[in-house]
Write a structure and sequence with these properties.
Elements: H1 2-9, E1 12-17, H2 26-34, E2 43-47, H3 50-58, E3 63-66
Antiparallel strand pairs: 1-2, 1-3
């Protein structure tokens, strides 16, 4: 049963907003909003895709990727 749980969880990535959006570029604010993060320390589990990875790379200084 644990094998199925790991298989279902491999295609996702957890993202946490660790820094406030004040003072950052407007396009970076929109990228954070596109990731589904609103408030500080909010966490979203997203499907691991090139589009999501691109958004994370754009705002790497605002978010933290968790296991």
């Amino acid at each position: 049963m644990a094998k199925n749980e790991n298989a279902a969880n491999t295609g996702t990535v957890k993202v946490r907003l660790v820094k406030g959006l004040r003072g950052c570029k407007a396009i970076h604010r929109l990228s954070v909003k596109a990731l589904g993060l609103g408030k500080l320390n909010s966490v979203r589990e997203l499907k691991d895709s090139p589009q999501v990875r691109g958004l994370i790379n754009k705002v790497h200084y605002l978010v933290q990727v968790e296991d």
